[in-house]
Design goal:
Largest sheet: 8 strands, mixed
CATH topology of the largest domain: FAD/NAD(P)-binding domain
Number of helices: 17
CATH architecture of the largest domain: 3-Layer(bba) Sandwich
Number of strands: 20
Structural class: alpha+beta
Shape: globular
Distance between the termini: 33 Å
Radius of gyration: 22 Å
Helix content: 25-40%
Strand content: 15-25%
CATH superfamily of the largest domain: FAD/NAD(P)-binding domain
């Protein structure tokens, strides 16, 4: 089918979270014309729901090296140390940039940025805004600024369906469906994928509904390499409630909140010497095993040691949510259970976000540059989101470009089959439930093998390799293909490492390697390397 070109820009940014917004703003400063595509409202994405804050070594007792060491300890051997050091070293300047945009961080009585402590950090270094609403406040400031920037066009309710490439397989456009259900191509010299995570492939997740991995799968179909797809972080304390998914900030545990089972027993120290401040993967599994022991669906986060007025002012969003949902949080505790939270794997890239596809870049949660290793350190995600865009913009600005004036349309082979809405809905629900049972906190060969067979059977029903113009169907195709690639990588990584816990292979690996998935290529392994070597291999 033929699709006409409706617009041409210097850069298209797919996604409207914090990293995408910073990219757009910094590119606009360099007189680049930017089109930002938002799947739903421009504010809807994981960034909006980020509570904790940004990890930055600001105190006199802290340093880049101490922060780096905590990051390495959490990442269990799979971190690219050069990438991690660079990101942490630029944390202070990137924080200052946010402040210059108009972000007002919470301050102490001494008028200094208030720093709190989260799991696996050796000291307090997490800056926050609005108590427990950092993502919401930062996103609002950036959106307001982007909306006033004449070089930035924001297209809300616009779904990116496919990455378009030229005869040399370089990215040069995107096929989209806009809010009026029109389909057309948009061209650009460079494409930036900033589509966030994949939590919606699971039943229980802290991610909003837009997080279905579209940008990651789109890049894969275009030839991009994906890295460490099996590395999915589950947050220990998702609110266990029938309402919309809601995260209970790690900062509560950092300031003294304690976990207890339904019998009222505190248990965290039985699993790790750091107790409630153990790395997320350890604590999530501790809760999982405690739920099995007590035959229960949740544990409680005990906050009885907090002063009520302090808790209300420090964690206003959590306080109000518990009130609205009629949770007796001071008397009984906050009911919590692990939930799919952060995708450590993603599109393989270097520090600047460059992929193995010409003119294709990625930034934020969908990117995998080696910063998080096998287990992300708390609040390093927003740190990456505010730092990495600056490396990307700097590198992109230096690239010479070829004009696209001669391209006026694209021909794309489509899946024209009509699918029943109810069947698509049921298949999506089944996929989420089966993923939760097999790709979650505890994995085994027998379960993963059966799940791979199930996913393969779905290929025959929906043909994920062929594009559909039905957004719901295409979203499901993306979720099926991504689930298959994750399951395949989890099955082939026959050891336990960080968030990847194989109950049948619990020992650590003899050598730390990244799993690499690429279209029409068998999954392969890449040894850990420095960032300079990574850049050389990518280009």
């Amino acid at each position: 089918m033929r699709f006409d070109v409706a617009g041409k820009y210097d850069v298209i940014v797919i996604g409207s979270g914090i990293s995408g917004l910073i990219c757009a703003l910094e590119l606009a400063k360099k007189n680049k014309t930017v089109c930002m595509l938002a799947k739903e409202a421009v504010t809807e994405g994981s960034s909006l729901y980020a509570q904790g804050g940004i990890a930055v070594p600001l105190s006199e007792s802290d340093s880049v090296e101490k922060h780096l060491q905590d990051t390495l300890n959490a990442g269990t051997g799979l971190i690219n140390i050069d990438v991690a050091r660079e990101i942490i070293a630029h944390s202070g300047s990137s924080l200052e940039q946010l402040i210059s945009y108009g972000v007002n961080f919470d301050l102490t009585k001494q008028n200094k940025i208030h720093l709190t402590k989260e799991a696996a950090h050796s000291t307090s270094r997490v800056c926050h805004v609005g108590g427990d609403a950092s993502g919401r406040y930062i996103t609002k400031v950036l959106v307001d600024k982007a909306c006033r920037e004449p070089n930035i066009s924001i297209s809300q309710g616009t779904v990116a369906l496919a990455l378009l490439t030229d005869e040399r397989k370089n990215a040069n456009g995107v096929l989209v469906e806009d809010v009026t259900r029109n389909h057309y191509a948009l061209l650009a010299d460079d494409i930036v994928i900033a589509t966030g995570g994949i939590g919606q492939i699971f039943t229980n997740t802290t991610n909003p509904k837009v997080c279905t991995g579209d940008g990651i799968v789109m890049s894969y179909r275009g030839g991009a390499e994906l890295q460490d797809l099996e590395m999915i972080q589950f947050h220990p304390t998702g609110l266990f409630d029938k309402g919309e998914p809601f995260l209970i900030s790690e900062a509560i545990r950092g300031e003294g909140g304690k976990l207890k089972n339904i019998k009222g027993e505190y248990f965290a120290n039985r699993y790790h010497e750091q107790g409630e401040l153990a790395p997320r993967d350890v604590l999530s599994r501790a809760i999982f095993f405690e739920l099995e022991k007590t035959n229960s669906s949740h544990v409680f986060l005990d906050i009885s040691n907090f002063d009520k007025d302090y808790f209300k002012s420090r964690f206003p969003s959590i306080y109000q949510t518990c009130l609205d949902r009629k949770i007796e949080f001071f008397e009984i505790g906050i009911p919590v259970a692990p939930a799919a939270h952060y995708f450590i794997g993603g599109i393989k890239c270097d520090l600047s976000g460059a992929t193995n596809i010409g003119n294709l870049w990625c930034v934020g949660e969908c990117a995998s540059n080696g910063f998080h290793g096998a287990n992300r350190l708390a609040s390093n995600s927003l740190l990456e989101c505010i730092v990495s865009p600056h490396f990307l913009v700097e590198q992109l600005s230096e690239n010479s470009k070829v004009t696209l004036n001669n391209v006026n349309h694209f021909e794309i082979d489509l899946d024209l089959k009509e699918y029943d809405d109810d069947i698509v809905f049921r298949m999506t629900a089944d996929l989420k439930r089966n993923n939760s049972n097999t790709l979650g906190l505890i994995r085994t060969k027998s379960v993963l093998s059966k799940h791979l067979d199930y996913l393969t059977s779905l290929f025959e029903l929906l043909n994920p390799d062929k594009l559909s113009l039905n957004c719901q169907v295409q979203e499901l195709k993306n979720m099926i293909l991504l689930s298959f690639l994750i399951c395949q990588a989890a099955l082939k990584r026959e050891h336990s490492l960080g968030v990847h816990y194989r109950q049948d292979f619990m020992s650590l690996p003899s050598e730390f390697k990244h799993s690499i998935s690429r279209k029409n290529t068998e999954l392969y392994w890449l040894s850990q390397m420095s960032s300079s070597s990574l850049t050389a291999n990518l280009r």
